[in-house]
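Protein fold
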Amino acid sequence: MKHYADLNEILYHVGFAKKDLQGATIAVLPGDPGRVETLAKDIGTEPMPIAVHREYTSWLTHVDEQPVLVCSTGMGGPSVAICLEELARMGITHVIRVGTTGTIQEKINLGDVIINKAAVRLDGTSHHYAPAPFPAVASFAVTGALAEAAAACGAPFHVGVSVSSDTFWPGQERYDSFTGYVPRCFQGTMKEWQALGALNYEMETSALFVTCQALGIKAGAVCGVVAKRTESESVAPTSAYERALSYQIKIVRGAIKLLLKK
């Protein structure tokens, strides 16, 4: 039995009510609360703040005169799943994750964008929603809309599989941590993922895809490349992030327009 929120019920974690969505069924989900205002203003029109609670900063914007939610999720799978549970209760049916990522393939450049169609489940949250053999896959409709919009705006984009890790350092086989220690179970794994054709490391997509599948939400993800692991473990200068974000804004706006027509 599904438990939908009452119109005026303020949900405990996100801090707003269904009435605040004005009928929105599509949500854009950046991780960083600091990106919400920019996305809301640049993706749509008539942007307005809704709530700021915990890691969830929320604005409403409009694309083709239709309301669209922009809500941050914070870092990692647990906060993503909590957000999705409450958005589902308020009638959200489609979500697009807008994040940052590090590529592990030489052919992908800093400032490019990656549209993930699936993810390796190196997280813990998704295993609370589905057993290990269950795949973390995106919605075909949302992924197709993102790819079509990326092609239309001339963005340098790549479609493929992400490796979603709960940790930024050991799970992504980074050796520039405080101790430099990576457990044996992760040593050499980046070469394995590269050989299998995975494109990138990040921290939320597998939790997003599996949780959305369990909740009946259609999900997609588009990430900007801010690190190139074939060259360095460091995050690139701000210019790469800004270049990727400019493409992400165009892609998300175009994808939403396509989804609203269906």
The CA atoms of residues 99 and 223 lie 4 Å apart. The domain at 18-261 is CATH 3.40.50.1580 (Rossmann fold).
